[in-house]
Amino acid sequence: MESPAKLIAGAMVTLAVATASLVVLPYLQLKPLPPPAALKPYTEAQLRGRQQYIAHGCVYCHSQQPRDASQAPDATRGWGRASVAADYAYDRPHLLGTMRTGPDLFNIGARQPSEDWHLGHLYQPRAYVPDSTMPPYPFLFEVKDEAAPGDRVVTLPPGLGPPEGVVVARPEVRDLVAYLQSLDHTYPVPGPDAATPEETP
Question: What is the predicted pLDDT for the residue at 29?
């Protein structure tokens, strides 16, 4: 058997080469990239909503990285152009996701800009997408006898609301919706992805 020192040295060299290739070089290549002009930093409400997105595990079922047309038919699904590194300039941590139990959300703010739609969909997804496997989030809402000043009453399809009273969105779900509405990357980017495929609902 070779000496432990040689084994350890070989392992360290292998780890160093892998780290340089997979971490250091990509970082040096992408660090100087400026964010696209149309990409704006998140507002305070959107940042709070992003934390709700993380806390409720949305990243486990939704990706935020449409693939190139040569790899997947994401553009024809209405998910938009393939993402590029600069699209994530303000994302800490990145929420790329690896599962697609639900649709990609990279451009959900463009496909579904309505706050009413998002609130109703979070309250009961299957009322909006019949085949959805997404769980409802009724605990993000409150049923009141009547709305108070400043309350955001949720407009729901007939028969979905409570028999009496109104459904009111809690602040945390409004923040979550603000974050989802901010996911609009329909602006052009330099290079082969400059053409933006037409978005579909």
Answer: 66
